[in-house]
Design brief:
By secondary structure, this protein is α+β, with helices and mostly antiparallel strands. It has one helix and ten strands.
Length: 168
Amino acid sequence: MNHNAYRLAIASLIVAACLLAACERQDAAPQGRAAAPSPAAVPRKDNTVMAVSTSPAVSITGVELGSAPMRPQDLPKRQKTFTTGDTVVVTIKTATRDPQARVPGRLKVRWIDPAGKVFNEEAKPVTFNGAGVDDFRVAEPMGWKLGNYRVEVSVDDGPVVQDGFFVH
């Protein structure tokens, strides 16, 4: 009987060691997992910041301001300064992770005045498919107030991409 008790004790220790090792692996797994990537902040020369990722399936790859809609060949003509009577257009470049995928979503733009108040907010449904360009425009019929303005862009209420402009 002592021999059986000895075998039982050894078997119990082996099972306990295996269970302990399995528990340690489960506890360690979350620490070893990579966190979901946050949007990368890309600083620009003009002190604005642009996030490059907004959604797992769709990314905002560029936000440009101008006084007319821009297409990819026009993007270097970005404008940061406007007069009180201008119409301001934000052109948003997007891309799907899979260039062949058709991804339904919602593109949203918020316009913020120098006091930090939202004065216009728009959203539109978009079927994203590879690289794309969309634009939104805003004008002030009574003329813009002087100062620094901001535009915020997002896809499906994901992380916000911002850009700024000045009215003089």
